[in-house]
Amino acid sequence: MTIKPEYREGCLRLSFQGELDHHSAEKALREAEGIIDRYLPKNCILDLSGLSFMDSSGIAVILRIHRRMAETGGRLLVDRPADQARRVLDAAGLNRIVPIREIKETVQ
Amino acid sequence: MKYENYIKVEFPSKSANEGFARSAAGVFASQLDPTMEELGDIKTAVSEAVTNAIVHAYPDTIGKVSMRCRILEGNRLEIVIRDWGRGIEDVERARKPLFTTGGEERSGMGFTIMESFMDRLQVRSHPGEGTTVTMVRVLPKKSRER
User: Fold this and answer.
1) ipTM of the predicted structure?
2) Which H, E and C letters describe B40-93, residue by residue?
3) Cβ-defined contact of A29 to B105 (cutoff 8 Å)
4) What is the pLDDT of residue B146?
5) Cα angle, residue B26 at apex, residues B54 and A28 outer, rounded to 5°
6) By C-alpha distance, which of A106, A82, A100, A88 is closest to B109?
7) Does domain A2-106 have CATH number 3.40.50.720?
């Protein structure tokens, strides 16, 4: 599980790649929080298109990042989750808390 | 019960084995020709059950976890995850969405995801003796085009 950060004009994009499970979640969260604290972005976009696997440990990571962003008055968006991750997000009802942008919405 | 094939694996409750367990279940399930979505569901449910055993059954120790996968009649895949850890006091409560004793790094959605991704979920637990999670998913035969 790796995180690739890109920062531009108040917006931080964190691209998650690999498998996000309980084994990788703690390190991923620490890393994501460290990057957020460094940039203090207004908007954070979690790009989940590169995740080959995610389970409910990923839900906890997203909720923690959501809370971190809320504490600094920022907003979080989950972007283009891969199919398997999308089913986990749906089963957990995450869209009631964090907005999710679909793959098809970003295709021109 | 009549079975067509099975595997049984046993491993210590180390988080590095979560990926191994779900991958092994996925490879075994592939004999039933699942779709990508079905395969993803099965791997996710296994990951949740194994993570529960690692996080909750053995909170301060390393213990034994076993996984048995069977192919039963009627294209049914049965997966049994068992531990010999501290057990669950109140199974009904543990199965409720958002309930967790695991602190902030857990979401409390594990059983909810197992329930929604599998056709049947049974949880048997005795405090101090361990927990057995049995899950069944029917993988209907696909009509193939060649």
Assistant:
1) 0.91
2) HHHHHHHHHHHHHHHHHHCCCCCCEEEEEEEEECCCEEEEEEEECCCCCCCHHH
3) yes
4) 47
5) 50
6) A88
7) no
- Residues of chain A contacting residue B18, judged by C-beta atoms under 8 Å apart: 21-23
**Structure pTM?**
0.93
Is the CB of A53 less than 8 angstroms away from the CB of B47?
A: yes
Q: What is the pLDDT of residues B104-116, one digit of tens each?
A: 677 788 999 999 9
B104/A25 touch (CB, cutoff 8 Å), yes or no: no
Whose tokens are 């995740």? That residue is A51
Domains of chain B: 3-138 (3.30.565.10)
Q: Where are the domains of chain A?
A: 2-106
Q: What is the mean pLDDT of each run of 10 residues along chain A (108 residues)?
A: 96 98 96 96 98 96 96 95 96 94 65
Do B135 and B70 touch, CB atoms closer than 8 A?
no
| Predicted pLDDT of residue B74 | 93
